[in-house]
Design brief:
This protein is of the alpha/beta class. It is built from eleven helices and 13 strands. It binds pyridoxal-5'-phosphate.
């Protein structure tokens, strides 16, 4: 599955039954279940049904393999990966490791997802001053973030690819901002991993969070956090038997925490999620990350060009280095357009007075023509 031609896409589409029901253009929200992912999860269920605990041990081996796959995907080592239940849990864990003081400030952007701001606004990690870097026409200049950072900044938290415009940050610039300001950066890479390259070796950051359930083709209920080595002596916010290197001693009076990111695991993870996430990430690898990235870039580029021809306000940048899998545009009465698209069996998103469209590598140009046809008709009849 390397070549970039229609027969290859047709072959790939056989793995995605969703294509029989929908023109599915919301892959950055929840990726539809691919056949190998379903099979892996069903096999686990059968094994558990027939063999009880021994099925759990096999799946725990997959848990280890999954950590290695997450690490490989971002150029990290497995020792730096914590498997979490979601991106949100991973972001909160990063916050608990950093431990911002309430009198400190946290820098976010106005194109954030709710999980990128809520932890600092309410709850145990809340601070008095959450600073929002502004955007102009869907783009956030790094200078606008840098100007909010001062000696009281506990952390900078950004989405590598923003949800509300599809803008992709230059990770080298973010990494440098953190390096020169000395302020830790927490990256939400939920909309980046599986679509564009992210590498914590070449562009280091302190923390990087992600999920299996979007572009990595796994189920909901599995996320991950990359934790830089310098935090490996931090006290975990929750501790369970998975965190201890001496667990085999069954000594309830002494807990020796692991010296790597395992110290942040607590109990048996969501194993059905683990086997599905492993199958999803393996599928990404089998199809080919470069192929996926190139194909999604072409499809999103095509959509942006076509929408702009209609004089629609597109917030996603045209420059392919500044976008990934998300295209966001504004129209009058977007709920109405959204309803019409759903009636025509086209699945996409609608929020913040706009429409979001996330094609994937299995999307065809014919599907995008259909989408554009409905948008054109909608504008004509307004
Ligand atoms: C950028 C981003 N971060 C976080 C989330 C939430 O992910 P999770 O449910 O894994 O916490 C989303 C969901 O759409 C997202 O797009």
């Amino acid at each position: 599955m390397q070549l970039y031609n229609n027969s290859t896409i047709e072959e790939i589409r056989e793995l995605f039954s969703v294509t029989n029901n929908w023109i599915y253009l919301y892959n950055g929200s929840i990726n539809p279940c691919a056949l190998p992912v379903r099979e892996a999860m069903e096999n686990f269920l059968k094994d558990w049904q027939m063999n009880g605990e021994s099925a759990i041990f096999k799946a725990l081996n997959d848990f280890q393999l999954l950590k290695e796959e997450f690490a490989d995907l971002i150029g990290a080592d497995e020792r730096n990966i914590v498997v979490t239940e979601s991106t949100s849990t991973a972001i909160n864990l990063a916050g608990h490791i950093i431990q911002p003081l309430s009198k400190q400030n946290i820098v976010v952007t106005e194109l954030a997802f709710m999980s990128n701001t809520y932890p600092w606004l309410v709850g145990q990690l809340a601070v008095d001053d959450v600073r929002f870097a502004p955007s102009t026409a869907g783009v956030i200049q790094i200078e606008n973030i840098a100007s909010l950072v001062d000696s009281q900044t506990a952390l900078i938290h950004l989405c590598a690819v923003t949800v509300a415009s599809g803008y992709r940050f230059n990770m080298a610039k973010i990494s440098n901002l953190s390096k020169f300001s000395g302020v830790p950066v927490v990256i939400d890479a939920a909309q980046a991993v599986g679509v564009v390259e992210i590498n914590v070796k070449s562009t280091p950051v302190d923390f990087l969070a992600g999920t299996a359930s979007k572009w990595l083709m796994g189920p909901a209920g599995i996320g991950f956090l990359y934790v830089d080595d310098k935090y490996m002596d931090a006290p975990p916010s929750s501790v369970g038997w998975f965190a201890a290197s001496n667990v085999a001693d069954w000594d309830v009076r002494r807990c020796n925490l692991y010296k790597d990111a395992k110290r942040f695991q607590s109990g048996i993870p969501n194993l059905i999620g683990v086997v599905g996430a492993l199958a999803g990430i393996r599928l990404v690898k089998q199809i080919g990350p470069q192929f996926i990235s190139d194909r999604i870039s072409e499809l999103t580029g095509y959509l942006i060009d076509e929408l702009k021809k209609l004089n629609i306000e597109v917030l996603t940048p045209s420059n392919k280095n500044e976008r990934a899998g998300v295209v966001f545009f504004k129209v009058k009465d977007p709920e109405n357009l959204h309803k019409r698209l759903r009636n025509e069996k086209i699945y996409c998103g609608c929020f913040q007075q706009g429409i979001r469209v996330d094609p994937s590598f299995y999307t065809t140009y014919q599907e995008l023509y259909m989408f554009m046809k409905i948008v054109k008709n909608y504008l004509k009849n307004m």
